[in-house]
Amino acid sequence: MNNVKKDDADVKKLKVVLCQNCSLVSNGLADYKEALIRCTEAIAVDDTAVKAYYQRSVAHRKTKCYDEAMADLKTAIKLNPQDKKMRLEFEQVKEEKKHQ
Questions:
Q1: Residue 27, CB half-sphere, CA atoms under 13 Å: how many?
Q2: pLDDT at 4 (0 to 100)
Q3: Mean pLDDT of 42-71
Q4: Which long-range contacts (CB under 8 A, 24 or more apart) does 46-49 make?
Q5: Quick check: 52 and 20 in contact, CB under 8 A?
Q6: Stated pTM of the model
Q7: pLDDT of res. 60
Q8: Span 33-59, mean pLDDT?
Q9: Which pLDDT score is estimated for 30?
Q10: Under a CB-based contact definition with an 8 Å cutoff, are residues 74 and 66 in contact?
């Protein structure tokens, strides 16, 4: 039975990684709707998936959904507080929101 639990955990980890990678590609192709879907899938499996929150914030930012982008960045920063890139990104989104 322990092997089944380990397999389930491995499958979940793999799904999160695949969804995050797909979202990265989707954002790069400007398919933000698909990126949002894949990130949300990853977060549903693992609500500590920092990259999924970050990639979802990128998709929200590109679609000018600044409040959603900032919410995802806040969560990502809480999960990974030492990441200065995300803090900088948060400030940039805040500025963009001011000028919309």
A1: 23
A2: 57
A3: 97
A4: 46/12, 46/13, 46/16, 48/79, 49/16, 49/20
A5: yes
A6: 0.91
A7: 98
A8: 97
A9: 98
A10: no
CA pair distance 3, 47, nearest whole angstrom: 24
Token pair 């590109």 is found at 62
User: Could you tell me which residue, 100 or 52, shows the higher pLDDT?
Assistant: 52
Q: What is the dihedral of CA 9, 45, 25, 55, to 10 degrees?
A: -130
Q: What are phi and psi of 30, to 5 degrees?
A: 65, 25
First to last CA, the chain: 55
Give me the pLDDT at residue 46, please.
96
Domains along the sequence of the chain with CATH: 2-98 (1.25.40.10)
Yes or no: say if 93 and 73 are a contact pair by the CB < 8 Å rule: yes
**Token pair for residue 34?**
């698909």
